[in-house]
Amino acid sequence: MDCGSVFGSLVQAPEDPILGVTVAYNKDPSPDKLNLGVGAYRTEEGKPLVLNVVRQAEQLLVNDQSRVKEYLPIVGLADFNKLSAKLIFGADSPAIQENRVATVQCLSGTGSLRVGAEFLARHYHQLAIYIPQPTWGNHPKVFTLAGLSVKTYRYYDPATRGLNFQGLLEDLGAAPSGAIVLLHACAHNPTGVDPTLEQWEQIRQLMRSKGLLPFFDSAYQGFASGSLDADAQSVRMFVADGGECLVAQSYAKNMGLYGERVGALSIVCKTADVARKVESQLKLVIRPMYSNPPIHGASIVATILKDSKMYDEWTVELKAMADRIISMREQLFVALSARGFLLIPLSLIFYSLVLVLAFKILSKDISISYLTGTPGDWSHIIKQIGMFTFTGLNSEQVAFMTKEYHIYMTSDGRISMAGLSSKTVPHLADAIHAAVTRMG
Ligand code: PGU
To answer: DSSP state, 48?
Structure first.
């Protein structure tokens, strides 16, 4: 259409599949609306949370008159980089002690992935990157635009709502030698399904035997189990064997620093000399992209990580967030199990019974698809790990829930458990029950 503008021929681009959910939510005037789209933590009151320890760190920074707003170096804040590597690889990591890790501060997890991908496209001999099917929707776009060639490996089995481990091993086994493999360090997005430690070990052996290059995306360290160390196990396994790997870290979720855009890319190398050269080349990637990273968020993180008292406080607040999410899983599971049985007068006894059953399922004692009130087996809600439940609801059911119940979520049926509260669980359970029973 010619309207005189040099951009007149542009077509309207669609909203982002994840961030666009918030745009639609914001436009909805309903008082009952619920945003379970974006993976962002909310309190029981449904409010965003700034951690106490973050407030304390910010206060210290504001009060420190010696602080200035000069440019950071291209690689970012030195303390932040050292402490970030320590956080993911462990304080006693030989790779750190031997100066074999090149760490650069980047713009949160996304920026770290992008810088890593641009570096690989320029300096690595294999352009193929294998990403899990499904994965975070931005992965294919980030890697393709950086110049890598995106392929997928089987990951999730809809039939079992668990890991397709055989498919994963077959696909990685068939990948060309040297190919890059994107691995979610923990709390896989969107499925909430992680390999066990034994499975990680098999993945590691296969990848090392084929010379596949691991690229970890660590966006949820601490959010899966509540423990920063436990959630870094997969990464540490790969570093312990002396081989090379890349890790993109984000502080968006675990420190609640979403909008501060603070993260790090680490490349673990075979020798200190290689690591130095890698860092020098990373600078050439970063400089023409955004010159150098912002100072505020990284200063908050460094302040917290270097003070043992603040660090401990952080771990307590982090665990509380992880625990609230786990409690939402239990409450939603109980609520769905109770749908259809609401007329039973002794419902309280019933609720307790369901809770006991929930724990039995978690400890893998039994599987009870036939006991749930809402048709179907919903035990995956309590089995899955991290911020999201991959409900198994299809896009029509999701559209129905948005239209009739004002519940917003991504069309693949993923819900952010962190967006739920005890107050909103019944509303969601009603919506799921109606979607399943009416939309088949
Ligand atoms: N990697 C994974 C696996 C993620 O889930 C996310 C965020 C990122 C990286 C990027 O996080 P940064 O904010 O850049 O550190 N995923 C969330 C947040 C919304 C989004 O899509 O960016 C999500 O809801 O999937």
So the answer is: B
